[in-house]
Design a protein that fits this description.
It holds the Pfam family Dabb. This protein is of the alpha+beta class. It has 6 helices and 10 strands. Helix content is about 30%, strand content about 30%.
């Protein structure tokens, strides 16, 4: 599988007329994406633009063959700018029975290029430990980025589906594992911090179980 995320910022008029999401859904279908999520970011998202566009293809060649439809939509008059990432297989998992997932969430981040391989691996291990403590995470995927677009050269994409949007702002962000274990990698006042740029934390309503690659 090969995955693509675009965080789309719209011009004010396109934001108000409500047609952009449907245009991107049509573009996703025309591009040959196996699955897609197109949704408006919910309250609490950070640097998430006006639309989250998440696409899955059978492989990188399928994305290359179909991306023209997406690129055309992104070049449309309603789009101001976008950023995002493209990435292959990462580390995925899911709980038994994920049909109740109603929320997709992604975190795009950049690990400082001077970070050692050991510290990067420790950081990735801490992220992947989170689902063991948070049953509201129905499926998850952590990937290193092959190609990024926009002003930030993203290095990682950390995705989950949740039982509900409230679980993102509730159990996930408020969980002791998040604050005591994971947050130290992000906090600029912590000596172990390796995330230097503002992250993109984006979540939207959806019924699709995107992160599960199995």
């Amino acid at each position: 599988m090969y995955d693509v995320i675009r965080i789309v910022h719209l011009h004010p008029r396109a934001r108000s007329d409500g047609t952009a999401a449907e245009e991107f859904r049509r573009a996703a279908a025309d591009s040959g994406a196996e699955t897609h999520v197109v949704g408006a970011p919910l309250a609490g998202s950070i640097a998430a633009g006006d639309l989250i566009v998440r696409l899955r293809y059978t492989d990188r060649a399928a994305w290359a063959a179909g991306r023209g439809a997406i690129d055309t939509a992104l070049a449309g008059p309603g789009v101001d700018r976008c950023h995002g990432a493209e990435f292959g297989a990462g580390t995925s998992g899911s709980l038994t029975g994920t049909a109740d997932a109603t929320c997709y969430r992604t975190l795009l981040l950049r690990v400082d290029p001077g970070t050692s391989a050991t510290d990067t691996a420790r950081f990735e291990h801490d992220l992947l430990a989170m689902p063991r403590h948070m049953p509201s995470i129905r499926a998850w995927n952590l990937s290193r980025v092959d190609s990024a677009c926009g002003t930030t050269p993203w290095t990682h994409v950390w995705e989950q589906t949740f039982a509900s949007p409230a679980d993102v702002t509730g159990q996930y962000l408020d969980h002791p594992v998040h604050w005591a274990v994971v947050d130290r990698w992000f906090d600029p006042e912590c000596p172990e911090s390796i995330i230097r740029d503002r992250v993109c934390h984006a979540f939207c309503a959806t019924g699709q179980d995107v992160p599960d690659r199995r």
